[in-house]
Amino acid sequence: MKYNIAVIPGDGIGPEVIKETLRVLDVAAKDTDIELNYTSYLAGGCAIDEAGLPLPQETIDGTKESDAVLLGAVGGDKWDTLGSDMRPENALLGLRAALGLFANLRPAVLFTQLTQACPLKPELIQNGLDIMVIRELTGGIYFGDKGRDDKSGYDTLRYSDYEIKRIAHVAFKAAMKRGKKVTSVDKANVLESSRVWRKFVEEVAEEYPEVTLNHMYVDNAAMQLVRWPEQFDVIVTGNMFGDILSDEAAMITGSIGMLPSASLGDTTLGMYEPVHGSAPDISGQELANPLATIMSAAMMLRYSLAQDDLATKIESAVDKALSDGARTKDIALPGEKILSTTQMTNAVIANMEK
Ligand code: IPM
Ligand code: MG
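A: This is the predicted complex of the input protein with magnesium ion.
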């Protein structure tokens, strides 16, 4: 089988973690009948520098024709002063919209080897942590009508039935394969859009009688995540609440450098990227943790290419590397040996070749 992967290294540590991840993918595909063809595209700050805009048409067209998109990260201080339509982040938002990627899956899993890197008290995580945050990605306040004048600015938060139902289906289907529990997060005590959200989530829930649904206000959810994270299985929420809660969920797993993500739509074409950003402060220093991107590539193999075995091969190699004590700076405890980005990748590859 031949697959065309659109690769978007982007900015900051993006190119570093992507380069390492492609090495892992090549080792995974070696001696199989799977051929992975990579084509690189520009997006983000580097696209502004080279092509004059954050998301060139060529990138949109190329990604649409691919089987999957693997993205590093976009953005950096260098482009922060540009006008609102020239922000590198527009590349991400534009790709999500252009490819119809309405469902963002952000699994927050605590590797038991990293329990000590978790900022929570050990008794709170003694049974591990395995939360799937499912964030609506192409609607809500990110994409509503917006504007500003000299003295004010506004953004609009609107959700419609079809947007809520389709993300709810993704959440309930995911829960059926996991712990059969969905927590829908909103702000229905204040927001009209949240009351609509609740109504249609409840409607979809009727189709999944085996799954338990509960609703939680977002402020409470932020608190419950650090108070008693084990209560969560699948969290489903809107675009901005999901942005915030997924960073929080990421941190309780030890490091945001460990979290992969998948953005999916109605077809098998998906976009895969680490949850961490471009981290310009550490770029070019071999300090970045490549594991979030490596595990994003595993998600790509699973969700877009239906190569579950290869995905599992990569994930267990990551697990074993961590068991062997492989640590990048972000997950190392004081006194532990720190591996570079390349060395961490080598540790994963060594476990794949065993
Ligand atoms: C994320 C990021 C993006 C978002 C930014 C960079 C546009 O924070 O993917 O979580 O807010 O969606
Ligand atoms: Mg974010």
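Residues 89, 92-93, 243 surround 3-isopropylmalic acid (ligand 1) (CB under 6 Å). The chain has eleven helices and twelve strands.
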